[in-house]
Protein backbone atom coordinates (compact mmCIF):
# COMPACT_ATOMS: atom_id res chain seq x y z
CA UNK A 1 0.00 0.00 0.00
CA UNK A 2 1.13 3.58 -0.66
CA UNK A 3 0.65 5.96 2.25
CA UNK A 4 0.92 9.75 2.15
CA UNK A 5 1.86 11.34 5.48
CA UNK A 6 1.14 15.05 5.91
CA UNK A 7 2.57 16.60 9.07
CA UNK A 8 4.53 19.78 9.73
CA UNK A 9 6.40 18.18 12.66
CA UNK A 10 9.53 16.66 11.10
CA UNK A 11 10.15 14.23 13.96
CA UNK A 12 6.59 12.91 14.07
CA UNK A 13 6.42 12.70 10.29
CA UNK A 14 9.59 10.57 10.20
CA UNK A 15 8.47 8.42 13.15
CA UNK A 16 5.11 7.79 11.52
CA UNK A 17 6.90 6.90 8.30
CA UNK A 18 9.10 4.36 10.08
CA UNK A 19 6.08 2.78 11.79
CA UNK A 20 4.12 2.54 8.54
CA UNK A 21 7.11 1.18 6.62
CA UNK A 22 7.60 -1.44 9.36
CA UNK A 23 4.04 -2.56 8.57
CA UNK A 24 5.15 -3.23 4.98
CA UNK A 25 3.80 -0.10 3.31
CA UNK A 26 5.52 2.50 1.12
CA UNK A 27 5.47 6.06 2.51
CA UNK A 28 5.72 9.51 1.03
CA UNK A 29 6.35 12.21 3.64
CA UNK A 30 5.34 15.85 3.11
CA UNK A 31 5.49 18.83 5.51
CA UNK A 32 2.41 20.77 4.40
CA UNK A 33 -1.19 20.42 3.30
CA UNK A 34 -0.46 22.26 0.04
CA UNK A 35 2.29 19.79 -0.86
CA UNK A 36 0.17 16.84 0.31
CA UNK A 37 -2.78 17.81 -1.86
CA UNK A 38 -0.51 18.32 -4.87
CA UNK A 39 1.09 14.88 -4.39
CA UNK A 40 -2.30 13.20 -3.89
CA UNK A 41 -3.62 14.75 -7.11
CA UNK A 42 -0.52 13.72 -9.09
CA UNK A 43 0.11 10.24 -7.67
CA UNK A 44 -1.90 7.21 -6.54
CA UNK A 45 -2.13 6.65 -2.78
CA UNK A 46 -4.24 4.14 -0.88
CA UNK A 47 -4.22 6.14 2.36
CA UNK A 48 -3.38 9.65 3.52
CA UNK A 49 -2.51 10.29 7.16
CA UNK A 50 -2.80 13.97 8.04
CA UNK A 51 -2.19 15.95 11.17
CA UNK A 52 -5.02 18.34 12.02
CA UNK A 53 -3.12 21.18 13.66
CA UNK A 54 -0.71 22.74 11.14
CA UNK A 55 0.15 26.29 10.11
CA UNK A 56 -1.41 27.65 6.92
CA UNK A 57 -3.94 25.20 5.57
CA UNK A 58 -4.80 22.77 8.36
CA UNK A 59 -5.77 19.14 8.41
CA UNK A 60 -9.45 19.90 7.94
CA UNK A 61 -8.61 21.53 4.60
CA UNK A 62 -6.55 18.44 3.76
CA UNK A 63 -9.46 16.11 4.56
CA UNK A 64 -11.83 18.23 2.45
CA UNK A 65 -9.48 18.21 -0.57
CA UNK A 66 -8.49 14.54 -0.20
CA UNK A 67 -12.16 13.53 -0.11
CA UNK A 68 -12.40 14.71 -3.74
CA UNK A 69 -9.49 12.58 -5.01
CA UNK A 70 -10.36 9.89 -7.57
CA UNK A 71 -10.01 6.98 -7.08
CA UNK A 72 -11.04 7.28 -3.43
CA UNK A 73 -8.27 7.49 -0.87
CA UNK A 74 -8.55 6.35 2.75
CA UNK A 75 -8.06 9.22 5.18
CA UNK A 76 -6.66 9.01 8.70
CA UNK A 77 -6.86 12.28 10.62
CA UNK A 78 -4.61 12.54 13.66
CA UNK A 79 -4.23 15.10 16.43
CA UNK A 80 -3.21 15.57 20.00
CA UNK A 81 -5.35 18.69 20.21
CA UNK A 82 -4.17 22.26 20.52
CA UNK A 83 -4.75 25.35 22.57
CA UNK A 84 -7.66 26.29 20.31
CA UNK A 85 -9.29 22.88 20.01
CA UNK A 86 -9.15 19.59 21.86
CA UNK A 87 -8.49 16.27 20.14
CA UNK A 88 -12.15 15.39 20.68
CA UNK A 89 -13.26 18.50 18.77
CA UNK A 90 -10.89 17.67 15.92
CA UNK A 91 -12.19 14.10 15.80
CA UNK A 92 -15.78 15.22 15.29
CA UNK A 93 -14.82 17.85 12.72
CA UNK A 94 -12.50 15.52 10.78
CA UNK A 95 -15.02 12.68 10.66
CA UNK A 96 -17.80 15.05 9.62
CA UNK A 97 -15.57 16.42 6.82
CA UNK A 98 -14.99 12.92 5.46
CA UNK A 99 -12.04 11.34 7.25
CA UNK A 100 -12.51 7.61 7.61
CA UNK A 101 -10.71 7.33 10.94
CA UNK A 102 -9.50 9.64 13.69
CA UNK A 103 -6.24 8.66 15.42
CA UNK A 104 -5.58 10.53 18.69
CA UNK A 105 -1.97 11.21 19.69
CA UNK A 106 -0.09 9.60 21.30
CA UNK A 107 -0.66 6.27 19.59
CA UNK A 108 0.94 2.85 19.35
CA UNK A 109 2.04 0.86 16.30
CA UNK A 110 -1.07 -1.34 16.56
CA UNK A 111 -3.28 1.78 16.57
CA UNK A 112 -1.66 2.96 13.33
CA UNK A 113 -2.10 -0.44 11.67
CA UNK A 114 -5.77 -0.56 12.66
CA UNK A 115 -6.43 3.02 11.55
CA UNK A 116 -4.90 2.40 8.11
CA UNK A 117 -6.90 -0.81 7.61
CA UNK A 118 -10.14 0.90 8.65
CA UNK A 119 -9.53 3.93 6.45
CA UNK A 120 -8.88 1.75 3.39
CA UNK A 121 -12.03 -0.30 4.06
CA UNK A 122 -14.16 2.83 4.45
CA UNK A 123 -12.79 4.40 1.24
CA UNK A 124 -14.02 1.48 -0.88
CATH topology assignment: Rossmann fold
Task: Tell me the strand order in the biggest sheet.
Answer: 2-1-3-4-5
CATH class: Alpha Beta
Q: Main β-sheet, in a few words?
A: 5 strands, parallel
Number of domains: 1
Portion of residues in helices?
40-55%
Overall CATH architecture: 3-Layer(aba) Sandwich
**Parts with pLDDT < 50 across at least 5 consecutive residues:** none
Name the beta content range: 15-25%
H/E topology pattern: EHEHEHEHEH
Task: Report how far the terminal alpha carbons are from each other.
Answer: 14 Å
Summarize the helices and strands and which ones pair or pack.
Layout: E1 2-6, H1 10-22, E2 26-30, H2 33-42, E3 47-51, H3 59-66, E4 74-79, H4 87-97, E5 101-104, H5 109-123
Parallel strand pairs: 1-2, 1-3, 3-4, 4-5
Helix pairs in contact: 2-3, 3-4
Q: If you had to describe this structure to a student in words, what would you say it looks like?
A:
With 124 residues, the protein is of the alpha/beta class. It has a single domain, classed as Response regulator (Rossmann fold). Helices cover 46% and strands 20% of the residues. It has 5 helices and 5 strands, in the order E-H-E-H-E-H-E-H-E-H. A 5-stranded parallel sheet has the order 2-1-3-4-5, sandwiched between helices. Helix 3 runs parallel beside helix 4. The longest helix is centred in the C-terminal third of the chain and has 15 residues. The two termini are 14 Å apart.
Question: What's a concise summary of this model?
Answer:
The protein is α/β, with parallel strands linked by helices.
Amino acid sequence: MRVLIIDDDDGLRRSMGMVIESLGHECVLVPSVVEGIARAEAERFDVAVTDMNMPGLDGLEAVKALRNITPPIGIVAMSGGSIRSSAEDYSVLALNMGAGVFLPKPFKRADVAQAIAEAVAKAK
